[in-house]
Recover the amino acids of this structure.
């Protein structure tokens, strides 16, 4: 019964935490510019993250190592510095974008410009991390994030052409603006296949003290949970594809456009639902990414770590998330546009994938870590495909950013 409860809570965690500033903005941009044609990167990204999350949980449950700890232990500190530096940079940008997302939601609610909210948001996130436990962050904030299911309701009420929606789930060549099409597709994939998600997932499994008895629950959490999350992201794209063209919007370059996806369906309450969705989802992501920064530092350098510990028991761990939040709030407080920062950081996320996925694949086939629970043929084939995809994304991201991201 306990494991059944954890499965349901894990699904809630995914539904509440999957949609954040990156998924929201990239899916909305894809729907506005190309209608339903970019459903396929959401589907592809969801399938990829299901496999990576399942492997991250399986690795943690069997080896009692996190992915970061396993990479450092297996390949040495010098090799570990490659994914460490890349993840550090990308996470700081994404963390700044998530703080910006909460700040934008507060601007919409109060009329006070978002730069004024950046430092208070960072301070509130720090207070939650300092005083709470991992279970509170994992389950409490994600329950609040269930309001994001309003996008699913909106997508159904808008009655899209489901034949076109289904067709968009299969890759196709763009009908116009190919540079922007492929840049948006890369950004959607970057928002879906984020290293921080499966790195955090493995740390959470260790925090929750998973063992081999949780392998079945892990498959359910990874499969059902991430599928629900991907469905929400797809619902945003569908709502944007139905609503934005009616307003003549083909490019989401102003965050004030975003509430239209729900306002067009629910009126004033749609605005309330959008503000709540953006605020709760981005604040949950802020907590998760700040924690992931601390996890990655601590696990990479052999420090004490754990959100369930008192700050005095792991002061270096607590110092990392404190500094991460303070530094990441600065660009938003200085007036950097959160939407532009989000799209740029999602593209860089895609570019950084090979540095974490490649060593992770090696770990999942190392019997000294996972024994008989190592990857099978299907899992290896999928991860090899993800590795190849990540190399392609790494190569094309910068040119597409220059040509199509402007």
């Amino acid at each position: 019964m306990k494991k059944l409860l954890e499965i349901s809570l894990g699904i809630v965690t995914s539904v509440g935490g999957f949609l954040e500033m990156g998924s929201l903005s990239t899916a909305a941009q894809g729907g506005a510019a190309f209608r339903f044609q970019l459903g396929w990167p959401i589907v592809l990204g969801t399938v990829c993250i299901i496999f990576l999350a399942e492997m991250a949980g399986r690795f943690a449950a069997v080896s009692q190592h996190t992915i970061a700890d396993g990479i450092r232990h297996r390949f040495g500190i010098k090799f570990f510095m490659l994914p460490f530096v890349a993840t550090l940079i990308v996470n700081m940008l994404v963390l700044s974008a998530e703080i910006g997302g909460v700040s934008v939601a507060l601007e919409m609610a109060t009329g006070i410009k978002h730069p004024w909210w950046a430092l208070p948001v960072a301070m509130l996130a720090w207070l939650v991390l300092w005083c709470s436990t991992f279970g509170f962050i994992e389950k409490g904030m994600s329950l609040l994030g269930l309001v994001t299911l309003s996008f699913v309701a909106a997508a159904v009420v808008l009655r899209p052409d489901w034949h076109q929606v289904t067709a968009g789930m299969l890759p196709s060549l763009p009908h116009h603006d190919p540079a922007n099409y492929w840049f948006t597709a890369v950004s959607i994939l970057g928002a879906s296949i984020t290293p921080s998600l499966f790195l955090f997932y493995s740390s959470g499994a260790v925090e929750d003290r998973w063992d081999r008895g949780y392998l079945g629950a892990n498959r359910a959490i990874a499969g059902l949970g991430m599928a629900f999350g991907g469905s929400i992201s797809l619902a945003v794209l569908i709502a944007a594809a139905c609503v934005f063209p009616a307003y003549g919007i083909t490019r989401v370059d102003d965050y004030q456009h975003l509430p239209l996806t729900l306002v067009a369906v629910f009126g004033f309450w749609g605005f309330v639902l959008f503000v709540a969705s953006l605020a709760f989802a981005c604040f949950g992501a802020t907590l998760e990414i700040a924690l992931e920064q601390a996890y990655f530092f601590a696990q990479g350098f052999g420090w004490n770590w754990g959100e369930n510990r008192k700050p005095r028991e792991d002061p270096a761990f607590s110092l990392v998330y404190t500094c991460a939040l303070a530094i990441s709030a600065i660009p938003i407080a200085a007036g950097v546009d959160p939407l532009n920062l989000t799209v740029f950081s999602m593209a860089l996320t895609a570019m950084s994938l090979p540095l974490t996925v490649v060593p992770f694949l090696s770990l999942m086939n190392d019997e000294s870590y996972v024994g008989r629970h190592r990857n099978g043929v299907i899992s290896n084939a999928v991860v090899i495909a993800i590795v190849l995809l990540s190399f392609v994304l790494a190569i094309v991201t910068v040119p597409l950013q220059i040509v199509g991201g402007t």
